[in-house]
Amino acid sequence: MADKSSQGDSKPEAQFAKRIDPTKEDLSKEQLQFIRQVELAQWKKNTGKLRGRNVATGLAIGAVVLGIYGYTFYSVSQEKIMDEIDEEAKARAPKTGAN
């Protein structure tokens, strides 16, 4: 296909959304109200996604914490083996008159 500039059509590209700074621009009350409405609509639209992500993140962190907590209890219950080994070592030790 031919390049647009070679066709002789020199229409400038349309600007769809020009960024403005409301504090620097002189905007009417209606324009400021419209900006607030649009921002509020965007926040409402994105709130559901954010809430879902926050719940998923919270559940993941909670699962990791419970896993660590459970593993700690499991490993502490394994320490009974060390007590049994110590008892066996005491039983095998030769008894002297001082013991």
Automatic annotation (TrEMBL):
One of its GO terms (biological process) is mitochondrial respiratory chain complex IV assembly. It is a single-pass membrane protein. Keywords: Membrane, Mitochondrion, Mitochondrion inner membrane, Transmembrane, Transmembrane helix. Its main location: mitochondrion. The keyword Mitochondrion applies. InterPro entries: Coa3, Coa3_CC. Residues 42-88 form the Cytochrome c oxidase assembly factor 3 mitochondrial coiled-coil domain. Residues 10-26 have a biased composition (Basic and acidic residues). It is found in: Mitochondrion membrane. One of its GO terms (cellular component) is mitochondrial inner membrane. Residues 1-26 are annotated as: Disordered. Belongs to the COA3 family. Component of 250-400 kDa complexes called cytochrome oxidase assembly intermediates or COA complexes. This is Cytochrome c oxidase assembly factor 3.
